[in-house]
Amino acid sequence: MRLNSVDYTIRYIYTVLITLLLALSAVLTFSSGSAVSVTLLDGNEMTVVSLGYGSRVGDALSAAGIMLNSTDTVSAPLTEYVRDGEMIEIQRGSLSAENIARSVTGISGEMERSALEAFADARRQANIKLLAREKASGYTFRGQSSHFSVPSGGLIETPAGIYEVIREMDVNASGYCPCEICCGEFASGITANGSKATAGYTLAAAKDIPFGTLVYIPYFDRVFEVQDRGGAINGNRIDIYFNTHGEAIVFGRRTLKIYIVK
């Protein structure tokens, strides 16, 4: 029996459809059955993830829960396809409020401002708790040298939390205690702003530094609060409170680097 043109057309379409279905089935079988193993090195942390065929570097970071900020670098472009056994290295940038807030790639505008505000608020709340805990834990005198410098606007990590640097200063520091030799008629243990003087926390500074100002002193590795004044305390001079006159004498007078922080 001879086939007419309509029959040929139907057979042709049927053949094409069968071919396409077989090809699609092969692709799906290969994709679902294929997986690539990728290792991500983020500082000292190593994570291994298993990804499907056709995944990219950005997919690997997402699978590992790794977030980037604007100064971080990755050893391969985020849009590049990953290879089985590949190692991807993340180099972290410097510590700053902006870098921490931009923990989601591509954040900008209003989202960035909101993230910065949320980060700053969370940091303040954490610092309040840590500083109160450190103040209440008591203090043992110890000194250490400072060999680093943090610019204004940078962040500095302390045992009492992470603080933003307002100003770095080199000061002439001395020690005092609540005795009459140091405080004369004001030898009561109560500071000029009405607080109870606390060793390892109370600081006397010039009037141009307001009460309540927080000061990080690397020599002590502690955050102090300006709570007191002194007749001879002006310019770049500060006075650090100690429990006993002997401790104040041992500390003596020395030049220290300090950071006014918030």
The CATH superfamily of the largest domain is: RlpA-like domain
Strand content: 25-35%
* Measured distance between first and last alpha carbons: 95 Å
Oligomer: single chain
CATH top level class name of the largest domain: Mainly Beta
Detailed description of the structure:
This protein is of the alpha+beta class. The chain folds into three domains: 33 residues; 58 residues, Phosphatidylinositol 3-kinase Catalytic Subunit, Chain A, domain 1 (Ubiquitin-like (UB roll)), CATH 3.10.20; 107 residues, Beta Barrel (Barwin-like endoglucanases). The strands form two sheets. A six-stranded mixed barrel has the order 6-10-7-9-8-11. The chain has six helices and eleven strands.
Question: How are the secondary structure elements laid out?
Answer:
Layout: H1 5-33, E1 35-42, E2 45-52, H2 57-64, E3 73-74, E4 87-91, H3 97-101, H4 109-136, E5 155-158, E6 161-176, H5 180-183, E7 202-204, E8 214-217, E9 222-228, E10 237-241, H6 245-251, E11 253-261
Parallel strand pairs: 1-4, 6-10, 7-9
Antiparallel strand pairs: 1-2, 3-4, 5-6, 6-11, 7-10, 8-9, 8-11
